[in-house]
Amino acid sequence: MNAVMIVREEEIQRTPLRGVQETLLAWPARVSLLILGDKDAPDEIDLSPGFERVMWIKGGQASEDMPNLAASLHQYVAGFDLILLLEERSLRPLAARIAAHLHCTPVTDVTAITAPLQCLRSICSGQAEQRVKASGKQVWTLRRQAFEQAVCPVPQVTYAVEKCCWKIILPQPIAGTSQPITLTRPPLTQAKIVVGGGRGVGARQWNILEAIADKLDAGLGVTRALVDAGYFTEQAQVGQTGKQIAPQIYLACGISGAIQHVAGITNSKVIVAINHDPEAPIIKRYADYYLLSDVADVLPRLLAQL
Q1: Taking a C-beta distance cutoff of 8 angstroms, is the pair 142, 20 a contact?
Q2: Could you say which of 141, 163, 185 is where a domain stops?
Q3: Quick one: 14 and 53 in the same domain?
Q4: Which of 7, 43, 250, 271 could staple 11 via S-S, CB 3.0–4.6 A?
């Protein structure tokens, strides 16, 4: 099996990449790496051993020109049997476009690679798993939390970097302006603690909830209802149509536990819920610990103790 992993530049030293690499190398697989860089390609790069080729294309902002980026990547990955991308909102459309170029159907939400061209994927909002046995060329997106297993540190080796060029096949998109956002909290998919807020948290308590997240050095996530209402951007949404997270602790404040939201938190190690309704699904089915109380009373007292 000849496989290639497409990752962003900031992912190359993180645990999920190593986890996927070790899984693939357990079989007679040849594994290459294609990096979406924010800057021009270096001549050499230090990585864990085992990669056959290391390629680099300047395309860190994948959403800015997705059609041409997908066409550019296609010319470099067409010779591989398996193309893997770590799950991310902006990379899932890229995976779909690459699959279209290869005339195959993408497989999303992969949680385990069980054998060459065989995997498990999450379905039914995380309540079940589907076993997939594929043939021909394949494009898979992987849930990064599922591959964050402990890996043994190994000495890095130096690879020569193959520089990849863009292939412009479509007209350039209309130019726009963008302003980078400075993150003051850890990203939701990497945070060890996540504080979540739902419809039960009133507008007056949002400043308190944000202060609690800052005190705990935690990520701040919300339910879809609050995103739809315009209180938060979709970057903060946790759930089936948002981000899937796997923190050590998830503190759910004023969250009922709708299946759409629960699909994004099932990989949390410990779920702690604050809710006044003892019949809420988050209390009855999902929470490891819970406090039956009004969040308006609990949050100020919690903040005072931190």
Answers
A1: yes
A2: 163
A3: yes
A4: 7
